[in-house]
Amino acid sequence: MKYSQSIIVLLFVFIYCFISGWKTVDNEEKQTSQKLIISKTVELERDRVIAQADKLIPEIPKTITAFPSSRSPGGPNDFFSEGPYWWPDPENPNGPFIRKDGLRYPGCFKDHDNAVSRFSWIVSTETSAYLLTGDEKYVKAAMKQMEAWFIDPETRMNPHWSYGQAIQGICTGRGAGIIDASPLIDVVQSVLYLKNSPFMSDQDLEKIKEWFTRFLDWMTTHEYGIKEMNAKNNHGTWWHAQAAIYAKLTENKEVIKLCKDRLFEILLPGQMTTDGSFPQELARTKPYSYSLFNLDALSMLTLILSNGTCDLWNKTLPDGRGLTKGIDFMMPFIRDISKWPFPQDVTGWEDQPGRRTFILLDAIARNNPESFSLWLDLDKKMHHDDSMATFALKCPLLWLGLKVPVASNTY
Fold first, then answer.
1. In which domain, by residue range, is 136 found?
2. What total of structural domains would you count in the chain?
3. Phi and psi of 243, rounded to 5°?
């Protein structure tokens, strides 16, 4: 009897060791494949990023103070934008504007939007070049821009968004305008890299952190911020993505917890159906691009909250809803847009889907070479103003967990 029990124990030990060993080998192979995807991405992006960064180094900072608007209720240092889908009423030309969802009014004020997007593009490109080379000149170029935007009292932008997406004849600003700040996500990710370099001073870092501390406080206390936090579509997702990374920079654990709790308690249950689609986005006049736009935000929020210590990418609700469910829903239509079963976007249809960052991140997270090939095949150019506006995340190298500097053939 004792002999039989010993045999059984030894058998269980053997099976456990075999399974554990198999899992170890499997995990090692998965990690190796993921590193190959990252290394290939670095190899493909290297020359383009460095050339672009070198071209941008001499660019003189132009903050919002360089683009005044007579319609802005604020001062020269206050961000101002107008709702893009609001038009003059032909039946009442001098009255309040009316909404035409998906159709951008060419007369709306866009200079501050464009300036923020340009600023984000420069800083994130210079930071990406620094990741690749470790060269001080790229940090100096990025800091030149950030000093103008966040530190210099003459040119800095005030840390609030009270006058975002105003509507003529209706309001001087609204919560929906906070989404115009989403390009700052790439800027903050750049700061999180550059703060560990020997080329960013502690004094400059503290001033930048102070700016985002004040901005995050405004986002979480002002009525516009609270309303946007509770938005039931991509606006709510982008609010959380912004709040999460600003909180990460400023070490605000309370806001980080709030974003993590709301991701699985509010955002996913309230936005996604069991098939992985987003009904609020599908109801828009640009259902395809807004579905992708929400996945951009959801993937970025998930990545920021994961913070290298927990894998939220594959976490789901009990019924299976989660980020990967949403990506899997859209993937067939990203591979072949002609299969899209819903109405086409009213504008910019020919520019979709573009090389979305979430496709690359998903290829790495789920070790999927097919998704990586798809990301490589997609057109990386941004032809149309509408397409550019939906690409808040422009520099994928910022989101791969790279170390500085990156060797040409290693992760």
1. 40-220
2. 2
3. -60, -40
